[in-house]
Amino acid sequence: MMVEKREKVVELDDTYDEEEERSVQLRTTETLLRLLPVGLCVAALVIMLKNSQTSDFGHISYSTLGAFTYLVHANGICAGYSLISAAVSAIPRPSTMSRAWTFFLLDQTLTYAILAAGAASTELLFLSYHGDDAAGWSAACINFGMFCRKARTSIVITLVVAVVYIAISFLSSYRLFSKYAPPIGAQSSKEVSTANI
Questions:
Q1: Which of 41, 51, 53, 111 makes an SS bond possible with 75, Cβ 3.0 to 4.6 Å?
Q2: Is there a contact between 69 and 62 (Cβ–Cβ < 8 Å)?
Q3: CA–CA distance from 73 to each of 10, 27, 49, 62, 97 (Å)?
Q4: Please, are residues 67 and 20 in contact by the beta-carbon 8 Å criterion?
Q5: 102: helix, coil or strand?
Q6: Where is average pLDDT lowest: 77-81, 152-156, 191-195?
Q7: Distances in Å between the alpha carbon of 37 and those of 50, 56, 67, 93, 138?
């Protein structure tokens, strides 16, 4: 009888150790994933900040183009948020529902913000390379090649950041929706919609 009780206690301890180890691994992965965009965002930001060119046709700078200004601001905000969220997620403490929801909502917001910055800048760069005959715009990258190459580099880095933020969003949604049950109102509405079918 005593031997059986000891075996059960050992089994429970093993399960607890596995859960604790999994939690530590997930926290480490999340922290590293949240730190990764810091360097990438700063690199994209610095490349775009130093991006200007003067030619026979005039002067061009990132600040004269709204999409590139938005790209710089989005990268700066994402770098700051990544650093702060990595510090907060690295601290070992029990997860609360409000903390999980906060991370989830902020991660979603910044994912869309950086994705929008990359998309708007990509469209502007495409028009700079190819122009738009219907609107009467000529290709500007013929005259400002160095500016366009630096802008392209910054945009590619920003799109890599967007992919990292998508992974972070998946991780924060996993943390939220795997740990906490849906609200009672959500369950009752599901039952109502099932009953109508």
A1: 41
A2: yes
A3: 54, 28, 10, 11, 30
A4: no
A5: helix
A6: 191-195
A7: 20, 37, 20, 24, 35
Residue 183 has φ and ψ, to the nearest 5°, of -60, 155
Q: Structure tokens of 96? A: 């609360």
Tell me: the pLDDT tens digits for 28-75?
A: 888 899 999 999 999 999 999 988 787 777 788 888 888 999 999 999
Task: Give the total residue count for the chain.
Answer: 197
Answer for the pair 156, 122: CB distance below 8 angstroms, yes or no: no
Cα 74 to Cα 134: distance, rounded to the nearest angstrom:
31
pLDDT in tens, 2-19: 445 445 444 545 555 676
pLDDT at 86: 92
Q: b/e map of 6-18 (b: 16 or more CB within 10 Å)?
A: eeeeeeeeeeeee
